[in-house]
Amino acid sequence: MNMVEHRQVTVFDTTLRDGEQAPGNSMSPQQKLALALALEGVGVDIIEAGFPSSSPQDFDATRLVAGSLRTAKVATLNRAVAADIECAARAGGVERHHLQVMATGSDFHLTHKRQISRQQGFDETVSSIDYARRLGFDDVSLAIEDASRGADGLLRPLIEASVGAGARTVVLADTTGRMLPSQFGDLVRRVRGWVPAEVRISTHCHDDLGLSLANALAGLAAGADAVQTTVGGNGERAGNTALEELAAVLHYKGDELGLFCGIRTRGLNDLFSQLRQTIHLPLQRNKAIVGEHTFSTRAGIHQAGVLKEPATYEYVEAEQFGRTRRMVVGRHSGRSIVRHILTEQGIEPEPDLVSRLYDTLIANRDEAEPTSVEQLAETVASEVSKWERL
Fold it and tell me: Sign of dihedral through CA atoms 379, 382, 388, 390?
């Protein structure tokens, strides 16, 4: 399959809105602006600045982001009321503004959250989309909350009428992260059959079962065009589809999937670091792509393989994501790392010397004090020099 046959995935990032909603993730308008520019820098297509009508801070953030982006579009989330749409227009203008109108997608939410009828939900949504288009918004999306619990008898009329009123994108949200990939794929496939080909379908998946990325990929395979992501997967509860994980899958599996995106993967680690510093986020040890030890190894068997050929244990390449490979020395490390260090220092790795260094420096290490290969190399040089003087 050549690139001409590949389908481009639009990346919509909601770190500044859904990501910020999680406890401890609050950001000032200026911090949101800095992150928005970094998101644009790695190639994100649409950047959601916030919910302008929810607070003066979100209004200011939207205004700052909308006025500063050059290649990406600004996006906002809005209730299906005229006042929210007017507020969004004042904050971000109507040009290059991806306006999302939030709709209630399940009878469960209509009954227990909104306490309104299907007809009321239908009427407010369709009239709001029509109003947004008449106000001058060209890029309007129908963002269906709790779509994954929605009956077809509710969703299909709502979607078809909203598209008729001018919605150009349908966002299907697995708001509670309840679906299996096969189920979410089936939902996208059905909706794809209800709307014209030019209408885009976007996924908004939560990670409550650890399936947000898998569900987003199933949605793409079933005909979705866009994925809503957050940096590091930050978001409500367990979070959202992680930007860096989606980018990694499309980087390595794009040919198999027939998909590609415009994300520049080498900048993703710096982007994640910027977010961490902004919201004081602890660094996980084992998070895919951005975890502290994602590109580190300590086990001797693995180190022996990596020293001979990195691909023996590394499918994802550190340099592709702005990372570097790191070998950590602990009591599980083997003699291969000692032989490697000696060879690098121009010293013949004789078996007796290797065993002596291994017994002295590795075999009985205190695991509370791991060290790097570089630090071990300094110690090896010192030990060899000391023994040579004896």
Answer: negative
